[in-house]
Amino acid sequence: GGTELVVAELGKGLVELGHEVVTFATGDSTPSGELRASGEKPCWPPDELAEERHAAFAFSEIRRRRFDVVHVNHPSAVPFAFSVPIPCAATIHHERVERLVEHYRAYPDVEFVAISRRQADLHPELRFAAVIHHGVDTSLFPYGGGDGGYVAFLGRLCAARGAHVATDV
Q1: Nearest 5°: phi and psi at 57?
Q2: Which residues pair with 22 in a beta bridge?
Q3: What is the chain's Cα-based Rg?
Q4: How far apart are CA 89 and CA 120, in angstroms?
Q5: Could you write out the DSSP letters of every residue in the chain?
Q6: Which among 21, 23, 43, 109 is least surrounded, fewest beta carbons within 10 Å?
């Protein structure tokens, strides 16, 4: 998925810079650095309870080791930030969802990160520590000359992403 790609690219970049990175993901993942997996298999469609079990597993492991910072990428992980005495950053990867705004507001000690200035503007009640655009290694996607006869779309296929508009164009 898109968030998983962003997390993988971030981990790869941090490892290349000499950082020790531990990624908590499903056992079929192949991140740079160390992988810690709970043994739970990936599921589709997404399951909020599976996400909570994954976050609980990750934070139980985090409490047993020494980390400088925890970076979470799913709303289910945010409440666990209270369980560790280290800074926690949470990147929000989705559009404005009212019930999630209330969820995030309940955790003022978490450092929220927006993926665009527009996203931050749409959440005025949240305090964003930074706007950090998704970093994707563009060398993985060489530019085409346009003569392939197709359009490639990388992202969540939904009306908000505008793939139907791009296809029409």
Answers
A1: -60, -50
A2: 34
A3: 17
A4: 15
A5: -HHHHHHHHHHHHHHHTT---EEE--TT---SSEEE--SPPP-SS--HHHHHHHHHHHHHHHHHS--S-EEE-SGGGGGGGGGSSS-EEEE--S---HHHHHHHHT-TTSEEEESSHHHHHT-TTS-EEEE------GGGSPPP-S-SS-----S--SGGGTHHHHHH-
A6: 109
- Report whether 59 contacts 69 (CB < 8 A): no
Sign of the C-alpha dihedral, residues 19, 2, 103, 43?
A: negative
pLDDT in tens, 28-80: 888 999 999 988 888 788 888 999 999 999 999 999 999 999 999 999 999 99
CB 75 within 8 A of CB 104: yes
The pTM of the full predicted model, rounded to 2 decimals, is 0.82
Joined together, the tokens standing for residue 104 give 């995030």
Are 2 and 156 spatial neighbours (Cβ–Cβ below 8 Å)?
A: yes
Asked whether the CA dihedral 90, 93, 96, 97 is positive or negative, the reply is negative
Length of the chain: 169
